[in-house]
Amino acid sequence: MLALPSASHANTALEEEILVTATRIPQNAAALPLSWADIDDGALALTGHVHINEAMQRLAGAWISRGNGQESLTALRSPVLTGAGGCGSFFMALDGISLRSPGFCNVNQLFDANTEQAGAIEVINGPATALYGGGALHGVINVLSARPANEHSLAVEAGPNDYYRGKYLYGRSNDKHGVSLRFNGTTDGGYKDSSGYDQQKLSVRYDYQGQQWDISSALNYSNLNQETAGFIQGYKAYEDQDLKQDNPNPEAYRDAWSLLAYSRASRQLNSRHTLVITPYGRNNEMEFLMHFLPWQPVEKNGHSSLGLQTALYSDLGHWSWINGVEGEYTDGWLKEVQAQEFSPNQPAGVHYDYQVDATMAAAFSQATWKHNRLEATAGLRWEYNHYDYDNRTGDGPACDPTATACRFYRPRGREDSFTNLSANIGGSFAYTDNHIAYLRYADGFRAPQVSELYRLQSGQQVADLDSEELRNLEIGLRGTLAATLDYDVAVFQMEKDEVIFQDANRQNVSGARTRHQGVELSIDYRLADNWYLNGVASFARHRYDSRINLIGSSGDIEGNDIDTAPRRFGSARLGWEFKADSVAELEWVYLGRYYLEPDNEHEYDGHSLLNLRISSQLSPHWQGNLRLTNLLDEDYAERADFGFGNYRYFVGQPLGAYLEFVYSRGDG
């Protein structure tokens, strides 16, 4: 049966709002003094996203910038962060377990998760609670696996450019056992020439409730084989009908697979204390052509991890307390090889070939006090990261000794360690039964990524980097008006220190500062019994707060906007439930203008798009879904930047129609 969407929680009491991500167990979330939001399974089903950015547009402060195929870059209460360590500023997880190991992030890592068939996606904006460490700097994106239920469905879907997708769902559940299997496979011919992808994702979950232990085990597998289309160049080239479908890099590709599995066991020790133990493992590999570089090397990377999370949850009347320790070991590697000679400074052959043994250990404590209309919380986290780096090729430059400015430098084997401490404190007050105000301070950190430390350039022999640190202060209001309007608004001020960047000499250094200020707003309004309106908006400025010799800049950029940081963006949806289990939803997506480089001399104008989705239960077992994307056939860029002296764009697709039929049974 069709599940109607819910962007927030209109027509429900505040005390019924549930969040998993803050503490890794379901909890009452309305009074939490932090900024959070979710996309439930009904909204995910109606959105039917082909790319994760289509779903994340439903959340305030979140913009997943879409590349070609399944590639992406993330902004979450931040600019779109790029480079070797940009992805390290976000904690992206499956059921609270990071998709990638600390130190080994990838900007595209959200394609590892089966978001298409998730139970929900929960997001925390800004530094999270003490349960999350390095990476939870600008926020958390947590994909929740779906609980087993008695259900069985098969869906087939077709769209433009030879797009086809199939989904299968099987579930059974009783008082003690539950199993859920979800699979989807996609083939896409690609809008641009010589592009497209094949992708498969599998999620399996098994739940068991025993007399002493409750155990939930899950496995997530993904595989992607993509023929990548590169960006087109030239001012507003995305409006040129002769260039829009052009692919300057028909040879580009990306192959990636990942596996993440865990088993979470919980036991109630007595009436006040519950122990939760979660062992997990992950493995992933990726190979791709670096088409965005003129010399086009091939990178291969991967890592395997084993980890353990433990936590003791204590309910002490007015107090609740979470204490835990975590540990993880990772074996990671990277190799970069160039097939053809480009120049003496970018030679053919092996540029990098290294292996890193990484260890993470952490301890945390988070306490909450509740009394009548007040709730206060405070947390502290200590985390230690250690890297043991082994260079598996020659030390020093990758070029012939006669090269005057070799691009690639391989440092000799070494070890690096980083110790960080983060804290958060906040409080909320329910000044009426339906309205809550909160105030929160939190700081976050991220240790340098492995590639920032050991993938060096231009003769840099050692990258002497510090962990990035961020301080966040926010005030928020949330509540319900007249039982028809839910609202959530947050005002934030963030300062980030020791920002890692590449300077004009192409060397990795830390020490920059940035500043981030803004307002995030979400509303969900029930216009009538069968009409709803919901929307999200972000108004923010993200600026450089120091004079730094950043690559691609004049050096005088203090106070400038960070590139790819629109000051305004958001979306709104008008929905009509035209009969039982049937809905039509018109969506407006707005992205404001933004600068393309640190000097703020080139910009993208922004765009507005309309999308239409219709979902209807055709019979007791059959459901039909129609999605029309870019309804007005606008010319726009999914992403824009300026590099090597040119405007560069990933082109947005024209009007597209996707039709899906779903056969389902509720008896498993």
Question: Summary?
Answer:
The protein has 668 residues and is an all-beta fold. Helices cover 3% and strands 58% of the residues.
Going by CATH, the homologous superfamily would be TonB-dependent receptor, beta-barrel domain
Structural class: mainly beta
Fraction of residues in helix: under 10%
CATH arch. level architecture: Beta Barrel
Mean pLDDT across all residues, rounded?
Answer: 94
Q: Can you tell me the residue ranges where pLDDT is under 50 for at least 5 consecutive residues?
A: 5-13
So what's the CATH class? Mainly Beta
CATH topology: Maltoporin, Chain A
Strand-residue proportion: over 45%
What is the oligomer described by this structure?
A: single chain
Main sheet properties:
22 strands, antiparallel, barrel
- Taken from the alpha-carbon principal axes, the silhouette is globular
Strand tally? 39
Radius of gyration: 24 Å
Count the helices. How many?
Answer: 3
What's the N-to-C terminus distance?
A: 13 Å
